[in-house]
């Protein structure tokens, strides 16, 4: 196993824009650090679950059933558009009360419907494993990837929250929220276009 090469590949994959990055920045700009960090935890759990799926045969299923991979892709695009719509409209009282749990759940779903993450496990991780790969090696690389991704995602949230605090005034809240919604919709469009 070429561990340090894998670390470099994971860093490059995580600093490349994608649905997780777009969602976390948009959420942190519109709702703040607390919601952003809850979403980071959800994304991390999603990455861990995808890693477990990879260790137990997800690649086989996605190669044999391309319709399942297409459904995952379009489900992810639709979910990103729904998140953009949700960010556009006025937050309701229930959202404000349950923001941490809701942000965690949305981070998890966003990641599970993120084909970029699934492709990393199916196409990139195997490049760093011996043939045939041992399950413990896949799990080790998964844990490494989750740590790297979580650190980068947390830094994005902190950066977006810092920008929010510089820009935030009550009169600008709607503008920031809607700007984040437009950004999320653009990420969905980009993702639909780039993964065809």
What characteristics describe this protein?
mainly alpha; 196 residues; globular
Q: Outline of this structure?
A:
The protein has helices at residues 3-15, 19-31, 33-55, 58-64, 66-88, 93-97, 99-112, 115-124, 135-167, 173-194. The chain has 196 residues and is an all-alpha fold.
Any overview of this molecule?
With 196 residues, the protein is an all-alpha fold. It has one domain (3-194). The chain has 10 helices and no strands.
Mean pLDDT: 81
- Please describe the biggest sheet, giving its number of strands, its sense, and whether it closes into a barrel: none
SS-based class: mainly alpha
Oligomer: single chain
Shape: globular
Which percent range describes the beta-strand content? under 5%
Count, helices: 10
Order of helices and strands: HHHHHHHHHH
Topology of this structure?
Blueprint: H1 3-15, H2 19-31, H3 33-55, H4 58-64, H5 66-88, H6 93-97, H7 99-112, H8 115-124, H9 135-167, H10 173-194
């Amino acid at each position: 196993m070429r561990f340090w090469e894998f670390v470099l590949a994971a860093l490059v994959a995580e600093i490349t824009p994608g649905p997780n990055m777009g969602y976390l920045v948009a959420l942190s700009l519109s709702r703040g650090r607390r919601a952003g960090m809850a979403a980071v935890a959800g994304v991390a759990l999603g990455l861990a679950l995808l890693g477990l799926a990879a260790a137990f045969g997800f690649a086989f299923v996605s190669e044999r059933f391309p319709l399942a991979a297409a459904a995952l892709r379009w489900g992810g695009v639709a979910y990103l558009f729904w998140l953009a719509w949700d960010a556009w409209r006025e937050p309701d009282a229930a959202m404000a009360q349950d923001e941490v749990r809701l942000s965690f759940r949305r981070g998890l779903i966003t990641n599970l419907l993120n084909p970029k993450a699934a492709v990393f496990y199916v196409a990139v991780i195997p490049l760093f494993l011996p043939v045939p790969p041992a399950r413990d090696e896949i799990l080790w690389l998964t844990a490494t990837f989750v740590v790297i991704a979580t650190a980068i995602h947390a830094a994005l949230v902190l950066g977006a929250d810092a920008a929010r605090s510089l820009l935030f005034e009550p009169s600008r809240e709607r503008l920031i929220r809607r700007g984040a919604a437009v950004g999320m919709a653009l990420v969905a469009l980009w993702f639909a276009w780039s993964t065809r």
